[in-house]
Amino acid sequence: MTFSRRRILAAAGASLAAPVLAQAPAGQPIRIGSTLALTGPLSATALTHKLVGEIYVEQLNQRGGLLGRPVQWIVKDDQSKPDVARTLYEQLVTSDKVDLLMGPYATGAILSAMGVAQRYNKVLVHHTFGIPSLAKYDMQFPAWALGPTPEKTVPNTLFDMLAQSRKPPKTIAIVTSKFPSVHFMSVGGREVAKQRGLKEVLYLEWEFGNRDFGPIAARVKDANADLVWIGDIGLEGNQLLDAMKKIDYTPPLHFHIYPAPGPMTKSADGDKALALTIFEEHPPFTNSGVAANFVRVFNERAAAANLPDTHVEVQAAASYTAWQILEAGVRATNSLDDRKIADWLRKNKVDTIEGRLRFDGPGNYGDDLMKIKQVQGGTWKVVWPTSFAAPGATLQMP
């Protein structure tokens, strides 16, 4: 099937238009199924993804739905357990007979969902998959714009920034959870650090779900590194910083992979913390109308829902982007045929609030769009690359 340039551009940009009232969708709902970690250790972040999905589907229906039909999102609780996610995606496809799938939160659950999608030849757009080399299925598409080799590109981005600082670190301590994606990234960071001449003074791992960070904090303090690389997800970073505070230690520089964004900004110990991001709610990210509108709506809804973080950052933006990708594929093909959607996505770029994404690289990954942000004055601000930095923001060194 061929597509006109007009149709391709319209599809790619459709989800960037600010929500407007359109002719009410009618007919049988298009059912999109997914799971999220609504309970368990990943729930604090997954609730953000749930809110984003609710906002997107509501706005999508205000814009006329898809194919003139209303869209219904069916989301189930996978309890932060990949095996539960696998079972529930089986149910979504076989029992609930959903038309389309949306990925769950976190690498382990996404990998489980990917296996189910492959078994039934379903497209799977996902927002938080952290190990691109494991994405072997040709009909999966990432909104988490890491590029195909983040274990190399991400640490190099961090070290490029620090090399330009007034006091580049010479020693590094790497401590990491065994949670798959952050462990993968930390192992890569370890290798890149060695290649760039940083002296490793500590390498330590902990089991995901660990709550006793006292011994780890003591080891970090004894190592006395210039830079502490923390392979954390969710509240692990806060828990480690709290344990350090109890022994009167504050790391001079600390970099976090996927911290819980709200709790990190609200903790005094989180001041000047560094982390990865794709989007923050400041220019130039909010220069587009769709991004500014999404930030406004999310802020309001998150506050009303008493979420621990009411700001749009990497998690919320990746989630919104995943929905934009799926919508673009359906609109471009004017179809719910999974194979047609997948073929179109691999051949075309999609404009999103993260930027223009492509899916023609290894594992359907495109460019590494990760930036480095820092907590400054209780707010996350991008500091690198400087072209994406918050107005007036520069890297703050201790």
From TrEMBL:
Q: Does the keyword Transport apply?
A: yes
Q: Which residues form the Leucine-binding protein domain?
A: 29-378
Pfam families membership: Peripla_BP_6
Q: Where is the signal peptide?
A: 1-22
Q: Which UniProt keywords apply?
A: Amino-acid transport, Signal, Transport
| GO BP terms | amino acid transport
Superkingdom of origin organism: Bacteria
Keyword Signal among record annotations: yes
Q: Belongs to which family?
A: Belongs to the leucine-binding protein family.
Name listed for the protein in its UniProt record: Amino acid ABC transporter substrate-binding protein
Origin species, per record, is Ramlibacter ginsenosidimutans
